[in-house]
Amino acid sequence: MTETTTAPEKKQEQHEFKAEVSRLLHMMVHSVYSEQEVFLRELISNASDACDRLRYAALTAPELLGDDKDFRITIHADPDARTLTITDNGIGMNREDMIENLGTIARSGTNAFLAELTGDAKKDLNLIGQFGVGFYSVFMVATRVEVISRKAGEDKAWRWESDGLGAFKISEAERDSRGTEIRIYLKDEAREFVEAQRLKAVVKKYSDHIPVTISLAVKGKDEETVNTGQALWMRPRSDITKEQYKEFYRHTAHAFDEPWATLHYRAEGVIEYSVLLYIPTQRPFDLFDPARKPRVKLYVKRVFITDDCEDVLPGYLRFVRGVIDSEDLPLNISREMLQHNPVLAKIRKAVTNKVLAELERKSKDAESYARFWDSFGAVLKEGIYEDGERRDKLLKLARFHSTSGDGLTSLDDYVKRMKPDQKAIYYITGDDLASVRRSPQLEGFRARGVEVLLLTDPVDDFWLSMVPEYDGKPFKSVTRGGSELKDLKTGKDDEKDTEKSEVTPGIEALVAAFKEALGDAVKDVRTTDRLTNSAVCLVADEGDMDIHMERILKAHHKLGHTSPRILEINPGHPVIKTLAATVQADAKSETVREAAELLLDQARIVEGEPLPDPAGFAARLSAAIARGFGGG
């Protein structure tokens, strides 16, 4: 154990934790979470990462290792002082690293954790097990924590200390070698974590696979190695238990859920590499990070290279966690050299195909696959847009909500259910499932039993622009162009009823009056069979941009203007019939003009679009209500 002392003449710096950290620490300090042992797993995992990072840095700067080339993690337990100390000889930290890694939330991956907090103590404590909380989990068992660290290649050591109550202190320290030492002053109720058998059990459960020697030294007893330290991905599948797979997933992914799928194999031939990948059950914290970086760790001959390589897997598989270990890449390869490396490109192609094949296999269990899709479907659909080589595979893997029920459907199943004369795959895009289900544009399709896909992920508008058809059937938005419902033979008597239905008297004159009243506010006014219950709706012209796509681009300042829409009116609706009769009696009726503007605003509101003149809308609505109640 390395002796460390604070230089007494050096002034301590006082720092306040960020607000979100203080919130988290308050819960940690007051936690009665039943699986407090996870703190040790988190600290050992961090120590292992520190060793991996130094091993990689030393490939190009071997002087960082000096004479200390064997990496190790040591756990010291002192039952008399009730302290637990975890020491590593990894890359270490300097003052700036301590502030960044131990004083802010960014490096601990807990923003998503905090977003899930409800204020209900019991529910919030359960989230600890769901998300994991990195370094901060130590405050579940500690009254005070000291971290003494010296960064490899630097002479100065630093001390970080805190009781987890809102602030931390940093000061210069003394340490005669690189690495980090975390000294934990345990709560009275956490005294079990100085007992040798308890510590061995925790290490065996969570960290046995870590390829760094972990030693345990309990005061008064001999030091002993407590992990096997063999890289799990190099062992045969038959030698690995389900529990070992699960714990390695939790280690490498820094997660607390169980893997939904595990992919473990070794490729031999021209290129040799080992793969141990996991698909999580729950969404990782950084799933929608704009960087879209995969989080698979790349090793070369068991030497960690990076977990920040965009060329390991495509961005649409960034939810995958685990390890890829190459036998053919050079050990001294840099992150820059990895870009466009032909060996890595071949590994990426083969592993991507393997992951998609595993998803296809797992999709046979519809219920389980639906849970996967709920978590990761929006991300996987990014591949439909950007990966032309695998677009057909991804389309077959895709699942969608539709008007046929509450469950998910594949495109193959949709095509099987198409009406006899239905030539297109109909869809509607929107911001959320509830609102698109209420969309008036669906009324005519629903009445005729024509299924419509309900697409609510932002990426849907983009991949649709790249995929004109599926199985020879074009994709067609129900909010664009004509409805084509009159051409569908649904097997019912709908079309016969339509042929026999009476033409609303005055409807042509009403359409003309609406066009005159609305002018350039609309591109056109026309009757439609798209509606059954609503009076009006807005649609885009056949060659124009889809309404929802335009709204997305405008919200992201990618579009400076919006195109005028077509206002479609339902000739069978009582309001439209009344207005048509009014136009027949008085072609210049001011009531019809006001009604046209009111109905256009109503259609805008239903579409979720802002009104250009809210005050005018309110005045017209008040006047219409007054007339309806006999107020003139």
Explain the layout of strands and helices.
Elements: E1 5-6, E2 13-16, H1 19-29, H2 38-60, E3 72-78, E4 83-88, H3 95-103, H4 111-116, H5 121-131, E5 142-150, E6 157-162, E7 167-174, E8 179-186, H6 196-207, E9 213-218, E10 224-225, H7 242-253, E11 259-267, E12 273-280, E13 295-300, E14 303-306, E15 321-326, H8 335-338, H9 342-362, H10 366-380, H11 382-386, H12 391-397, E16 400-402, E17 405-409, H13 411-416, E18 425-429, H14 433-437, H15 443-447, E19 452-455, H16 458-464, E20 469-470, E21 473-477, H17 494-500, H18 507-518, E22 522-527, E23 536-539, H19 547-555, E24 565-569, H20 574-585, H21 590-607, H22 614-628
Parallel strand pairs: 3-9, 13-15, 18-19, 18-21, 22-24
Antiparallel strand pairs: 1-7, 2-7, 3-4, 4-8, 5-6, 5-8, 6-7, 9-10, 11-12, 12-15, 13-14, 16-17, 16-19, 20-21, 23-24
Helix pairs in contact: 2-6, 18-20, 18-21, 21-22
